[in-house]
Prior knowledge:
The structure holds two protein chains of two kinds. By secondary structure, chain A is an all-alpha fold. Chain A is 77% helix and 0% strand. Chain A has helices at residues 12-16, 27-53, 58-66, 68-96, 100-130. In chain A, helix 3 crosses helix 5 (100-130) and helix 4 packs antiparallel against helix 5 (100-130). Chain A is elongated. In chain B, 74% of the residues lie in helices and 0% in strands. Chain B has helices at 23-54, 56-67, 69-96, 103-131.
Amino acid sequence: xxxxxxxxxxxxxxxxRGRGAAKSGTQDFWVQRVTSVAGIPLTxxxxxxxxxxxGRNQAAVxxxxxxxLVAMIMLLFIVCTITHMKIGMQEILxxxxxxxxxxxxxxxxxxxxxxxxxxxxxxxxxxxxxxV
Amino acid sequence: MAETKAPAARPLSxxxxxxxxxxxxxxxxxxxxxxxxxxxxxxLLAWWLMAAASGPAGYARFEWFAGSLIGRLVLFGYTWAxxxxxxxxxxxxxxxxxxxxxxxxxxxxxxxxxxxxxxLTVIVWVIGYLAMGGSR
Lengths: 132, 136
């Protein structure tokens, strides 16, 4: 009798539903969509800003980039695209790098690259904006 | 008695090269490649912003690069990649709503993305040169 008794009573469906305590199995998918939707108007705005700055000298560029509205748009663009590209590169790596240790190394490098480049961009904008 | 069978020579699953190249296939690859280009292109954005924040000398170095032939080619490529990836993203967002999967629709979307990205890139650069007053 006991051999026939099931080891656990949860059905396969119940075990995958909700994805356990983390409940975050689709977070990267969702964040990639949020940042792609946000990226559309931000990209258009950044094109307008860059065209405005073409041919101007450093003083004028620094002044315009540091203006509150422009600086806010640039910061949003930076946060949005850096987040998006970190997940994008992560997808490419897990797709094409079968070797486990190389994959982990590259995923680590991806995280470092995105944080460093993102913070450099954000630091430059904040420096221009606060005028220090 | 118990002889080990040699592994059967089964056919391998077909890979990319056996398929006829289609536009949607190329666009799928281009979306990833343009994304990859923008990933490393973020270094250019970081350089430009730090140059602007660092002062006239640093900015002059960036301007020298941006104005050079190589620099302009890289920036033209960056512009195209950004526009192409954005339009490709719109295509993916349309697909996310469950629309645009029909045989004609997906061909049309693929063609609109590549033609749109090239046309818009040229338009942006023409506007850019006009904004600079025809200098350079």
